[in-house]
Amino acid sequence: MDLAVFGGFLLVAVWVTSQIWVDPAGRVASLYSSDPAQVQFFLAHSVRVVLYGEFPFFTEQFNYPDGVNLMANTAILALGIPMVPVTLLFGPAVTFVVLVTLGLAGTASAWYYVLSRHVVSNRLAAVVGGWLCGFSPAMLSHASWHPNIISQFLLPFIVWRVMVITRSTRPYRDGALLALLVTAQAFINEEILLFTAMGCGIFLIAVVVQRPGLWSAAWRPLAKALATCAVIAGSLLAYPLYIQFAGPMAYHGLSDAVRDYGNDIAAYLAPGSPTIGGNQRANVDLAPNYSEENAFFGWSLALIAVGIVLWLRREMLVRALAVTAAFYTVLSLGERITWWDRELMVGPWEWLVRLPLLDAVVPTRFGMITSVVVAILLALAIERSQTLDLDRRVVRTLTAAGLVLALLPIAPMPLPMTSRPPVPEFITSDRWRAYVGPDQTLVPIPVPSMGNTHGMRWAAATNLDFKMPGGYFLAPRNGNTGDPGRFGGRPSGIGKLLEEVASTGRTPELDDRQRRRSLDELRYWKAAVLVLPVRQAHSEPLRQTVEQLVGPARLELDVWVWDVRPLTDPRS
């Protein structure tokens, strides 16, 4: 039975990702295509860690020469390193879709397993709970972009182990097991780990408030196990966390662009965009963007969840779950609580956002934990319905009708994809190697940034064999370790100039001062060659602009090439 359930979840995950599987290297989410390119870059970095023993927590392969703090940028080492054989054989684009598929199916399967063994005895209840945990609208929203966020298959085991240590007879062993799970999750996604830790704390507090007597029996094994966990996990994570918070290019706090991301209250009543009942246009004002639809239960599931709490309110477990869900729902609304994009009041996140660790959290994602709690409540409701004093056929009919009403509007659909430019043959055929030395950079045109990440895919396709300036990442705002974060490195004059040309298609007239400053930047980057794909949007205005800076281009295969070594290499 378990294998059938796991297989069913895998088939659903393949269905959801089917539009990417058609052509992994040539298909990408129709909006916000930068995140997949960044993830593929990180996957290629894992290859270099395994094959060449490169330092795992920092790299100079992009944003050269300043580099990027990978611990502060979710480099997903716990996913990328085990997938190195797949990346080597098939490339990072295939690894990306494999991780998305396994993230959805694995999360659903893990929750089903834990629910069926430790929470409910009814198999249907565990299947439904696992389904909603793995394929909720929030999970589907992130699936096109963030395999690190949807890879939550360790979370049910972490939660289970936390519950176990409250009554453990071997707290030191159980604390050590918890430490290993925590350490692994930290290298998948620290934000989700923080949410899980907070959720376990809120749930246990809600239980103790209702049953104070439980504390006297639980505190000793809990204290011993947590102390053991803290020592072991702290030892394993001490150096990576030091690099993250105090190493080169570390930052404290998120960019202002995402710090105030919150859910609209109405988002909890609307179906998610990638679902049967979803409407992307209707959701436009209810979430920060389509990759952050972290609520979107639909009105039927939202009302049914409230109904379950009212029906089973006499159960301590249900009340504790309800408190946890309410806590996360309120936090997910962000600094300003809104209803249909109309501000109602200041939210509690306004006072929490500046606290250590919480200053690096995107508040809308708290809604993902609400989804998990609702899934557990739904599983409990199915289990309890079997004890109702009604005819069995009536119970089955009511249960089936309730599940259809709750889950059909948010049933997953294939993630929408669009075509993206292929990696140039100039890159895949290794023709670039004739130009770029080990201490030089290849500069894609336009210069890689948050909105122009094709160059990052080029580098990932070569397993990062060349360095490049710029890129899409988080770095300290003013270039000093400890500053608040922002997207991208130090401002670049030539980068901003070419980005404007790429977006407008207009060729500017440049003066000598702009040429001198651009050459200074190219020298700082140790640029060897500038590369512009012939099929790049607005390639002609871009070519004309670059030619004003460094001279005529040469057509080589499918790109325009500028060999700038005579201008940038002091030995020339």
From TrEMBL:
Q: Which UniProt keywords apply?
A: Membrane, Transferase, Transmembrane, Transmembrane helix
Q: Which residues does the UniProt record annotate as the domain DUF6311?
A: 53-354
Where would you find the membrane-spanning parts of this chain? 70-90, 96-115, 124-143, 194-210, 222-242, 296-313, 320-340, 360-382, 394-415
Gene Ontology molecular functions: transferase activity
- Give the top-rank taxon of the lineage listed in the UniProt record for this protein: Bacteria
Classification via InterPro entries: DUF6311 (IPR046278)
The record's Pfam families line, in alphabetical order, gives: DUF6311
Q: What is this protein called?
A: Glycosyl transferase
Q: Which organism is it from?
A: Micromonospora qiuiae
Lineage of the species this protein comes from:
Bacteria, Bacillati, Actinomycetota, Actinomycetes, Micromonosporales
